[in-house]
Amino acid sequence: MRFEAMLKEKGMPFQRSVHPSAYTSQGLAALEHVSGYHVAKPVIVKGRKEFAMCVVSACDRVDLSRIAELLHEPQVRLATETEMANLFWDCELGAEPPVGSIWGLKTILDEPLHGDEYLVMQSGRHTDSVRLRREDYERLCDPVVATISLQ
Q1: d(CA 35, CA 6)
Q2: Sequential DSSP letters for the chain
Q3: 52-109 pLDDT per residue, tens
Q4: For the range 32-37, what are the long-range contacts, defined as Cβ-Cβ under 8 Å and sequence gap of 24 or more?
Q5: Residue 98 covered by a domain
Q6: Is 59 inside any structural domain?
Q7: CA-CA distances (angstroms) from residue 137 to 65, 74, 121?
Q8: Could you read off the pLDDT of 4-52 as tens digits, one per residue?
Q9: Domain contains 151
Q10: The total number of structural domains that make up the chain
Q11: Contact yes or no for 108/73 (Cβ under 8 A)
């Protein structure tokens, strides 16, 4: 997978896991035996100008109003499945890693995840995931850190 190759190329240590198909972030948390608060879930939004990747825990939902504010957009909406398939052509739909920089997207990381020691995430397929130190994750994608989940 492109994501794992990038991690290896940059010398970032990670744990790869192969498991039964996980079609939701909470399902991934259950398969990996971790709290959903440690699973980084990408949510793709679209404004007038561009797409952005918002990363929240599996337990949370994004605050579209707050994201629009951060992106200096009057409003944003969730990307459609067709848009997602076009953006992430090299991933199974819904299994994209939460690293927008791979596809030239701005990444916004939810503040609560910023304090975690590690993050678990899909790596491009529903049967593959990685566990990565949060500090390494942030070095990889240089996200904007802000509170973007609904409280």
Answers
A1: 26
A2: -HHHHHHHHTT--EEEEE-S---SHHHHHHHHTS-GGGBEEEEEEE-SS-EEEEEEETT--B-HHHHHHHTT-S--EEPPHHHHHHHTTTS-TT---S-GGGGT-EEEEEHHHHT-SEEEEE-SSTTEEEEEEHHHHHHHH--EEE--B--
A3: 999 999 999 999 999 999 999 999 999 999 999 999 999 999 999 999 999 999 999 9
A4: 32/120, 32/129, 32/131, 34/120, 35/59, 37/112, 37/116
A5: yes
A6: yes
A7: 26, 30, 10
A8: 888 999 999 999 999 999 999 999 999 999 999 999 999 999 999 899 9
A9: no
A10: 1
A11: no
Is the separation of the CB atoms in 115 and 109 below 8 Å?
Answer: no
Structure tokens at 135: 């500090």
Does pTM surpass 0.90? yes
Q: Is residue 122 part of a domain?
A: yes
Q: For the domain that residue 106 is a member of, what is the CATH number?
A: 3.90.960.10
